[in-house]
Each structure stands twice: as structure tokens, then as C-alpha cells.
Amino acid sequence: MKKEEIKELSTADLKERLQQMEKDYAQLKINHSISPLDSPAKITADRKMIARVKTELRMRELNNK
Fold first, then answer.
1. CA-based nearest residue to 17, from 43, 59, 52
2. pTM of the predicted model as reported, rounded to 2 decimal places
3. How confident is the model at residue 41 (pLDDT cuts 50, 70, 90)?
């Protein structure tokens, strides 16, 4: 998902996606601790995507005030 795609989504959709992404990220970390992943860079990419979504949500929150 790119920045432009994130900006096009509604706030409710972003919150829903964020919740799912955080859940998937936690599961990925657990799986990696048990047995190494083929691509550990996926952990970093997922963490950055979560940060992008959180940033967009925060920007919307500040713009509404």
C-alpha cells in the first residue's frame, strides 16, 4: 500500500486495517522467534507500514481540531 492509497481510505477503514496489520505483525514476530523467516525484511516493512497508517490517522486527527 502506497501513501496515496492510504490517504484515499476513510478513517474507519484505516483504523480497521491498522488493527489487522498490528495483529499480523505480532504473529509474524512470534513465528520469527520460533523459526527464522525466509525474508526477515518483511518485519521491517510491516513495521514501517504500520507507522505510515498511524501517521496518517494522527494527521487527520490534528486537522479536525
1. 52
2. 0.89
3. very high
Cell digits for 26? Answer: 505480532
Cβ 53 vs Cβ 8: under 8 Å:
no
Burial of 29-64, coded b for 16+ CB within 10 Å and e otherwise, reads eeeeeeeeeeeeeeeeebeebbeebeebeeeeeeee
DSSP codes joined into one string, 40-65:
THHHHHHHHHHHHHHHHHHHHHHHH-
Task: Quote the distance between the C-alpha of residue 26 and its chain's center.
Answer: 11
What is the overall mean pLDDT for the chain? 93
| CA gap 50, 65 in Å, rounded | 23
User: Which residue has 525484511 as its cell numbers?
Assistant: 41
Count the alpha carbons within 13 Å of 14 in the hemisphere toward its beta carbon. 23
